[in-house]
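Internal tracking record. Fields below are filled automatically when a chain is submitted to the structure queue. Please do not edit lines marked as system-generated. If the sequence contains nonstandard residues, flag them in the REMARKS field before resubmitting.
Queue: standard
Priority: normal
Entity type: single polypeptide chain
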Amino acid sequence: MHEVAIIKDIVIILLVSIPIIFIFKKLNLPSIVGFLIAGMIIGPYGFQLISEIEQVEVMAEIGVMLLLFTIGLEVSFGRLIEMKRYLLAAGGLQVLLTILIAGTIFLLFDIPVNKSIYYGMLVSLSSTAIVLKILSDKGELEAPHGRLGLSILIFQDLAIVPMFLLLPILAATSFSNPVSILLQLIYAFGSVAVILFVARLIMPKILFHLAKLRMREAFTVGILLLLLGTAYLTYSIGLSFALGAFIAGIILSETELSHQVVAEILPLKDAFNSIFFVSIGLLLDIQFVLVHPTILTLIVIGIIILKSVIIIGIIKFLRFPLRVAVITGLGLAQVGEFSFVLAQAGLGFNLIAANFYNGFLAISIFTMLLTPLVFLFIPAISKKFGSLESVKHHEKEAESEKLKDHAIIVGFGLNGRNLARVLKETGINYIVIELNPETVRQEKLNGEKIIYGDITKEDILHHIKIETAKIIVFAISDPTAARIGVQNAKRLNPSVYTIVRTRYTKEIGELHKLGADEVIPEEFETSLQIFSKVLERYHIPLNIIMKQVALIRGEGYSMLTQEGVKTHSLVHLDEILAAGLTDTFFIDEKNSHLEKTLAEINLRAKTDATIIAIVRNGKTISNPSGKEKFLQNDTIVITGTHQSVDKAFEYLSE
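SYSTEM-GENERATED OUTPUT FOLLOWS
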């Protein structure tokens, strides 16, 4: 019956997971929050649909391994190097300061040093899964607070590795013996270094040979073998399963097969992760919460304030605006999923007592449940804090006084750089506003007309002479900043022509209401490019394609962004395809038909298409005879049906 019980528990969890995923998707909330609530409801402290959780904890351990494995795949060595500044500065300071300050607070309550450090480690971690899900859904991963938040979260995920290594040291009875601590550190880090070295030599070769078999089953089983094998190896030498899974992921991330590995593992990770988060909810003792509501509430508020203040201070230290600092700080103020993993590991080392563990679970779950609600109020909160920030004008007033009928470029990413280059070449006066202080410093050295500033601030808009500007272009990935910036710019200068780049078509209507003259949604422009390219391959005349593109843009994209809107149909495709067309083919030096006569090529007999002209050295040879040869750099004019012209192109390309 033991086997039947575990299957029953899995069935219940999966049965609950499906409607939760659907409901929370409709509510635009992370499903993880729903899994936590579901665990509380169906668990031994709720309706007792699941009363024995030992078996579920085993599956939750697999979920943790898969989660760390996929994080290892995503944070390759190359990406870590690319993000090194904010990863080390923002992430490193956040983890160290949180452990130091939180540990000091715990010490004030007469908690031993080793346990105070351990509790500080638990508090220092935030929820990668929840925060990245919310930022991704809001389209803010590339915004300044999105990039900073991602850097801090990645550092936290990496920090879990040394934290696991420190657990046996913190649990050692000879905690004050520096020699013992040093030996344990050397053993732990030395073991990890050896495993990394050996795994980097062996694992890519194994994966390559598995891929060569061209058997999906063998490839999937091989991935699981490498994952679980490395996890078991680290566990067998006194470290954790999760650490081995992370090592396997970061090694495989360097191979050319990493994307296929993610594709194979992702479904398993999602399934087991739901079990992991439900299992956390199962462990929450609701009776404990009801007995200690006041102290738990105070600690939850205290952790949110502590983590927010630390992160805000760090982001301000890195010279980002207070608005960005507040969004990042509040967004990362919860306790994360890896804290659960660290807490469970701490139980085995007697670093956390049962009553403390129950309290920690309650506090962590409540901070995670509050995160989506905090994100709902972040725009209003950040705007309020931003208005309190004084703006320092680092630029010379003489420089800003020269600005008249100029263009303002907000953001210096790919779009901003391209626009600035074109304006510079055409001699149009412009100025760039950028939030990244490193970018501003570097580009100033390159002679770029760029200043550091937050476009949501009226003082900045006055400084860049919004009153005399002709056009302002928002080329940023921060929807909140774009909306505030558009509204303020139009209020200060109603005649300034405003162009906004946005990611999603759903934002078009609101931006137009705020005063934007033109909104360019990336996903929609991509769709226009796609259908244009497809129609080109079918030889649809260019004027027909451009007419349809202009029609859609002219109607403000409404025909494809609103349900029930009547759309103008394209000219019937079958009529166009049935008609003849004329196209051109260029003869390069590698063409196999070079120096052959038209009679030898015999294009009409082979493809039913006709050569009606040859353009050579700027002159046109109409109705060429069969004796005419193909010469290098000739342009051949071909006419026929769509099918015959396609055949002619294939034949001439042989």
